[in-house]
Write a structure and sequence with these properties.
2 domains; seven-stranded antiparallel beta sheet; 4 helices; 26% strand; elongated
């Protein structure tokens, strides 16, 4: 939800009321939750004390729930994987030194190992283990389009993409992938 401009006659924040015109009030971040595209965004049957953001017809929880690639559904997929995975809940953290915009680490618990690869940059980048030994299954992709895909050799991460991947049991985890 974006910051909402609040008309002077609807300001509720005490600081903004006491020192008007500075734009320091917090009302713009306290507007009603946009649950759906209905009148008053499903927040209330009557007009709320603060205005709702323009674009609430598409920027709302209902639309996020229906979009399989939304941040809402990404969080649901991540939570579901964490609940199923002892390595993500209680496993040990093992960082893998990487270069550029890659952040890579493994969580390990008993025989389960889960690799997390994050491309923090805007350009596509390959995540490669030495001797192309990377193998496993993608459990979650932040783009929402690669769950269940098998990885052999390396994986290309798109700009600003992250993956959670179950590593094959015999894959050695390198200390670095420079």
């Amino acid at each position: 939800m974006p910051q909402v401009p609040i008309p002077p006659d609807r300001v509720c924040d005490p600081f903004e009321r006491n020192v008007p015109g500075l734009g320091c009030g917090r009302d713009g971040a306290r507007t009603p939750m946009q649950w759906d595209a209905s009148l008053h965004t499903g927040f209330s049957p009557v007009e709320p004390w603060l205005p709702v953001a323009s674009g609430f017809e598409t920027d709302n929880v209902e639309c996020e729930r229906l979009d399989p690639t939304s941040i809402y559904n990404l969080h649901r997929r991540l939570i579901a994987v964490r609940r199923r995975s002892p390595s993500l809940r209680v496993g040990h953290y093992r960082p893998i030194v990487a270069s550029g915009d890659l952040l890579v680490f493994v969580r390990e618990h008993e025989s389960e190992r889960t690799l997390i690869g994050l491309n923090l940059g805007g350009d596509t980048i390959a995540l490669r283990f030495p001797d192309r030994q990377l193998r496993g299954e993608i459990l979650v992709s932040s783009a929402g389009d690669r769950e269940g895909a098998l990885v052999t050799g390396d994986i290309t991460l798109r700009g600003n993409e992250g993956v959670v991947m179950a590593l094959a049991p015999d894959v050695p985890v390198p200390p670095s992938i420079l």
